[in-house]
C-alpha cells in the first residue's frame, strides 16, 4: 500500500510506486512534446500551416465523396448485370474512368498535402530545437549535467522526423476512418434493414443487423490487437534507444579512427560494437514477435471481412428481399466500415513508434528547459557576466567554478587583467585551469562571482583540439565565419604566417581535412583563424600542446608580432611558455576546490636568458 506524503498545503498526497512514476514521466514527456510541436499552428508558427491543414481536410472530404460514388456505382453495375441490362452496363463502363481519374487525382493531391504539412512541420520544429540547442553553449552544457538526453543528434534527426510524420498520418487517418465509418454505416443501415430470425415458436427482429455485425467485428479485432500489442510502445522505445547507441558507437569509431588504429584497438572496438549491436538484435527480436502477433490478427481480419457481409446478406438475397447489387454494395460498405474501425489495428505499431520517438525528443526538450530555467533562476549558483567601464579589460571577481551538482572546482578567484597583458595560467593537471577558461568564455555556467569584460572587447579562443569543419580548407580557416568572408589572398597570407604555405594552393579543395591534417597542423590552422579575426582578448587553452618546441616559439612570436596590443590568457604546462608572458597565475588543487596560490609578474630579462639557453641547447644537440 502506498504511504501518503504531506504536500506544502498540508494535504496528504499518495506516494507513487516506481511503475506509477514511470507512467507519469512518460505522460509528461508526451505532453511536453505536444506543447512545443503545436506551436507550428500558433502565432510563432508558419502562416501557411492552417491553409495547408484546411486544404488537406477538403481533399479528404472530396475523396470520401468519390469513394461513396464508387459504392453506388458498384450497386448499379451488379443490378444491371443481374437484369442483363446492356445499355446501363455500357453507361457505367463509360463513367468508370471518370471516377478513377477523379479519385486518383484527389488521392495524389491528398498525399502531397499531407507530406507538405509533415515536411514543413518537421522543418519548423527542427529549426526551433536546433536554435535552443546551440544557444548559449547548451549543446556543450548538456554533456555536463545528468538527464535522459544522450545522442541529441539522433533525437533531432531521426526521432524528430518520426515524431512529426506519424501525427499527421494519425490525425488524417482517424479523420478518414471517422468520416468513412459514419457515411457507410448509414449505407449499411439503409440497405440491410432489419433481419428477422425464427426463434422457437416466434421470431426475433434485429434492426440494422449489418451495422451491429460490423461494430462487433471491429470490437473483436481491435480488442485482440490491443491485448496482443500492449507492450508495443515499451519495446519500440527501447529499440530506438539501442539503435541510437549503436549509431553513436559507430560515429565514435569513425571520429577517432587514427587513435584507434595507432593503438591497435580494433579488437576492443569490435567487442563494444558487438555488444551494442547485440542489444539492437535482441530488441528487434522482441519487436518482430510483436509484429507477428499483430499481423496474425490484422491479416485474419482482412481475409474474413470480405466474406462476412456476403454470408449475412445471403438469406435476404435468396429470399428475394435484396438484389445482387445491394448485396455487393453492402459487402463493399461493410469492408470500408471494417477498415475504418480497424484503422488502429493496422497503425498501432507505428503509433507505438511515434510515442517512443516523441518522448525521446521531449527528453531533450526538458533538459534544455532545465538549462533555460537555471539561466533565469537567481537561486541557482551561476557565474554572472558583467562589463568593465575602465581600467582592466578582464576582471574575475570572487569567481568560483562548480560542477552541476555543486562541487567546487575553482574557489574564490580574484584577478584583474590589464589591456595588452600576457597572462599564463599554470598548475598541475586537474587543478581546474581549463575549467577556469571555460568559465571565462561562458561555456561553464555554474558557480559564483562575476566575469567582466571591457565593453566592446572581442574574445577569441584557441582550444587544445581545434575543430575542423567538413568541406573546403577555406571554410576550415575562416571558421566560425563563412568561407567567403575573406579573399583567397587573405587566407593564403594567414597560412604563410603560421607555416602552412604549402596548403595555400588547396584552399578551395574539398577534402576530409579533419583526418588529413595532423594535430600540430590543426593547431596552426587555429592560429591562422586568430590572425584573420583580430581579437582583443585571446585565450589559448593548451593551444600549442601538439607543436614541437621550435614551432611553438614561432607561433608565439608570430602572435606577439601580429597582434601586439592583444590581451593574452594562456593555459599551458610547458615552462618555455613563460618567456612569452608578462605574468603568471598558478592554481593549486586543494580540498574544496583549486585556489589561486600565486600571481607574479615575470622578469623581462628572464625571457632573454631562457632564449639564449635554449639556443645553446639546440646547437649542442645539432653538433652531437
UniProtKB/TrEMBL annotation:
Keywords, in A-Z order: ATP-binding, Membrane, Nucleotide-binding, Transmembrane, Transmembrane helix, Transport
Keyword set includes Methyltransferase: no
Bilayer topology annotation: Multi-pass membrane protein
Domain of life where this protein originates: Bacteria
Protein localization: Cell membrane
Transmembrane segments: 48-70, 90-113, 170-192, 204-229, 291-312
ABC transporter domain ranges (all copies): 394-624
GO molecular function, one term: ATP binding
InterPro entries for the chain: AAA+_ATPase (IPR003593), ABC1_TM_dom (IPR011527), ABC1_TM_sf (IPR036640), ABC_transporter-like_ATP-bd (IPR003439), ABC_transporter-like_CS (IPR017871), ABC_transporter_sub-D (IPR050835), P-loop_NTPase (IPR027417), Sigma_54_int_dom_ATP-bd_1 (IPR025662)
Residues annotated as domain ABC transmembrane type-1: 54-353
Xref: PANTHER family: ATP-BINDING CASSETTE, SUB-FAMILY D MEMBER, LYSOSOMAL COBALAMIN TRANSPORTER ABCD4
Stated family: Belongs to the ABC transporter superfamily.
The name this protein goes by in its record: ATP-binding cassette transporter
Organism this protein belongs to: Rhizobium aquaticum
